[in-house]
Specification:
alpha/beta; six-stranded parallel beta sheet; globular
């Protein structure tokens, strides 16, 4: 089929590249000229494992092309995916201006019947507004069907999720449009759920809100475990063996971040408020998560009394491994609080340093290796569970730090392994291990 994707961000670009790889003729449209020029040269503007090779391959084959020209991009398209940004407003609601602009451009430039499919995460009822815009501004003789097709792509595994996801949600009022969308996805052999547009919109928000709830719940249980002498590793494993609960998203830590969970939970609370439905459970989830962000700094202050003049090595800047995305990353909260306490911060991340520098500037030191970040540090804070950090030989801490004290926000190491080294180790929901012998700095 001939497909156009509006938006070359994380969702739009992955969607465009993956449909091109599946054999469709795809045009990806974006308003940022510099981004399009970069993509036309085969380079991605963000890091996503495996994306750049697929981009290069489909550019070379002619299956994929890029444009900044709506008239050119929408000409002849059979399906148009809207995958533009939906940023958060100050009040927690969603800024839909990019959605509306894309809808106007589609209406003004289509030359044939088309299905317009919303991939961006939008509040319930948004597709009805898109439909109104298209109906009022499109050429009268053309037929346009609206479909809600929310994405469930996780940064760091987006390509795998596209082809091997748990489900495809298709929300449509016209059965014919739903059937066409179903045919588009059938080759992937992923379960397909066909529903109405409003239910499809809600499925996306409800899914993310439930996962966020699971994370905040296990973090509250972890905090309780510390106070009663239980071990969250054993507790979460025992809980997760129950098929009704499951092991996924039962890993305790310093809270969720990124571009989805924080924005979507707040948007759902706002949406509920708009229809006079107090969403008290989700409000508590958000509150717990925000408190969890500061947990490691609180633990460090309890250990040292004052953090003024201390060198802190912050390991991990991205909000999760396998991405350079630092939007709502917990590391940023930690760093800002450490600086406020008078600490000197040296940070390491394998790929997110350029993005972090844009926000933090020269307020901290950036290290190209973990060892460089740890050198003469008074304590280390683990904010992102990168493999480079999880598989670091533990004696590295004893060799390079002034004193090996670790505050692990992702429970990267087993307590059994830690106990073999003279390390003070404080994690989440597990007994703290106190340094038993000081190892002189080398």
């Amino acid at each position: 089929m001939k497909i156009t994707v509006a938006g070359a961000g994380n969702v739009g670009l992955v969607t465009a590249v993956c449909f091109a790889e599946a054999g469709h003729q795809v045009t990806c449209l974006d308003t940022q000229k510099e981004k399009i020029e970069m993509l036309e040269k085969g380079h991605t503007p963000f890091f996503e494992p495996g994306l750049e090779p697929l981009l290069e391959k489909n550019l070379a084959s002619g299956q994929l092309r890029f444009s900044t020209n709506p008239k050119q991009a929408y000409r002849g398209a059979e399906i148009i995916f809207i995958a533009v940004g939906t940023p958060e407003k100050k009040d927690g609601s969603v800024d839909l201006s990019y959605i509306y602009v894309a809808s106007y451009h589609i209406a003004e430039n289509i030359e044939n019947d088309v299905i317009v499919c919303t991939k961006s995460t939008v509040p319930v009822g948004t597709n009805d507004i898109i439909k109104q815009i298209l109906q009022h501004r499109k050429p009268r003789h053309l037929n346009v069907d609206i479909v809600s097709n929310p994405e469930f792509l996780r940064e760091g595994s987006a390509i795998r999720d596209f082809y091997l996801g748990d489900r495809i949600i298709i929300g449509a009022e016209n059965p014919k449009a739903a059937t066409i969308m179903e045919q588009l996805y059938l080759p992937f052999q992923i379960p397909i759920v066909i529903t109405d547009t409003r239910s499809a919109e809600m499925i996306k928000y409800a899914s993310n809100a439930f996962l966020a709830t699971k994370i905040s719940f296990i973090n509250e249980i972890a905090n309780l475990c510390e106070k009663v002498g239980a071990n969250i590793d054993e507790v979460s494993f025992g809980m997760g063996m129950d098929k009704r609960i499951g092991l996924n998203y039962l890993q305790p830590g310093i809270g969720y971040g990124g571009s989805c969970f924080p924005k979507d939970t707040k948007a759902l609370v706002q949406l509920a408020g708009n229809v006079l439905h107090p969403f008290e459970l989700l409000e508590s989830v958000i509150k717990v998560n925000q408190q969890q962000h500061s947990l490691l700094v609180r633990k460090a202050k309890e250990r040292f009394g004052s953090l003024k003049g201390k060198k802190a090595a912050v390991l991990g800047l991205a909000f999760k491994p396998e991405t350079d995305d630092i939007r709502e990353a917990v590391s940023l909260t930690i760093i800002k609080e450490l600086l406020k306490e008078g600490s000197f911060v040296s940070a390491y991340d394998p790929i997110a340093i350029p993005n972090a520098h844009k926000l933090l500037g020269n307020s901290i030191e950036y290290s190209t290796t973990i060892r460089e970040a740890l050198k003469e540090a008074d304590f280390a804070v683990i904010a992102t569970e990168w493999d480079q950090i999880k598989h670091l030989p533990l004696d590295t801490y004893t060799v390079y730090m002034r004193e090996p004290i670790i505050f692990d926000g992702r429970n990267c190491y087993s307590l059994k392994d830690i106990q073999r080294y003279p390390i003070t180790y404080v994690s989440i929901g597990r007994p703290a291990i106190t340094n038993v012998a000081h190892t002189p700095q080398h």
